[in-house]
Amino acid sequence: MRRTQRDLVLELLNDGGWHSTIEFVDLGILRAPSRVWELRCGGFPIECRRRPDRRSGKAIWEYRLEPGAPRRLPGAAGRDASRIVVTCPGCRAPKAVTAVRAGLAYLSCGLHHVPAEELEEDVA
User: Fold this and answer.
1) How many CB atoms sit inside 10 A of residue 68's CB?
2) How big is the CA angle at 101 (ends 117 and 78), to the nearest 5 degrees?
3) Which candidate among 12, 75, 113, 117 keeps its CA 20 to 30 Å from the CA of 123?
4) What does the domain layout of the chain look like in residue ranges?
């Protein structure tokens, strides 16, 4: 199975240390803030901070998974957020969960959602 950019970001952040946007670019992830946002929507508490670069003086953003934070999506049978697949009620096809918030799991089709409590039963 091909790893997504979200998988790569979560792997990097799992050590609990601060990681700069430069590190994400080295992994081929050019829109790190977007991937961080997706992970936050999926229930991962990710902190960010801005610091000046020692050489250029320009601002660099850094991210880390909060210490003691769960490394997996809560309420999803212990599976990684990027690996949850449910049957979309509108499309009637398997779709990945892209975010969980306010009790709803949003699907990759971008059109539909399911109640988050159904994730336990439908996880593929």
Assistant:
1) 7
2) 50
3) 12
4) 5-65, 81-122
| Residue among 105, 110, 109, 111 nearest 123 (CA) | 105
The rounded distance, in Å, linking the Cα atoms of 124 and 104 is 18
Structure tokens at 54: 């020692």
Q: Which residue has the tokens 């792997």?
A: 11
Place of tokens 């946002």: 37
Average pLDDT over residues 36-52: 85
Count of residues in the chain = 124
Q: 34 by DSSP, 3-state: which? A: helix
CA distances from 46 to 40, 56, 89, 111 (A): 6, 26, 31, 26
Q: What percent of the chain has pLDDT over 90?
A: 15
Reported in sequence order, the residue ranges of 44-93 that DSSP labels E, i.e. its strands, are 46-52, 59-65, 85-87
Nearest to 50 by CA among 20, 23, 22: 20
